[in-house]
Design goal:
globular; 3-stranded antiparallel beta sheet
Length: about 100
Amino acid sequence: MNATQPRLIERSVPGKVTIEWADGSTSVFTAADLRKVCPCAGCVSEATGVRTHDPATVPDDLEQSNLSLIGNYAISMQFSDGHSTGIFTFEALRRLADSGSLH
């Protein structure tokens, strides 16, 4: 099984998403961590790839709701700041988890 494939995805509390990966490792993402790296066209220029949303404006106590699967490759959610257009691929989430840059 692919290491970037989740075995379990859980909205552990309003401020966190926990993913247990196929290789047995577990990653915990805060809503703020995810909002700061949102890959949608409103946050990243489609033409240049440059981030247009300032991650410094994301409050640490941000919450998420309506966590849902997008096919077999991603998740989406609603953030308490009203943002909801990001699609977070499992591959990108695993890279983020492995980067060591999470809270």
